[in-house]
Amino acid sequence: MMKLIDKLPLTALILVALTLGLAPFSPQPHIVEKLGMLFDGSLSRPIDIFDLLLHGAPWLLLILKLFRLSFSRT
After folding, report:
1. Residue 4: which of 71, 65, 70 has the closest Cα?
2. Does 41 reside within a domain?
3. Residues 39-64: pLDDT tens digits?
4. pLDDT of residue 74 exceeding 60
5. What DSSP string runs through 1-54?
6. Between helices 30-40 and 46-72, what is the axis angle to 10°?
7. Does residue 69 fall inside a structural domain?
8. Residue 74: enclosing H or E segment and its boundaries?
9. Less packed terminus of the chain by CB within 10 Å, N or C?
């Protein structure tokens, strides 16, 4: 799994995180809305959970890639 993350280009991950991860941009990005619902305890509908996973996955991959890059250079 980590070899796959290492092969992903950083610029592509940044682009996907900024587009899919923040879509729709108006009135509020889905990831912000769904994280708010998660912290409020109101994230219970399956479609909301799916939205959180869909819009959160690019950010998670980007964070993993940056984490791997920071420790591979030391």
Report:
1. 65
2. yes
3. 999 999 999 999 999 999 999 999 99
4. no
5. -HHHHHHS-HHHHHHHHHHTTT-S-SSS-HHHHHHHHHHHT---SHHHHHHHHH
6. 110
7. yes
8. none
9. C
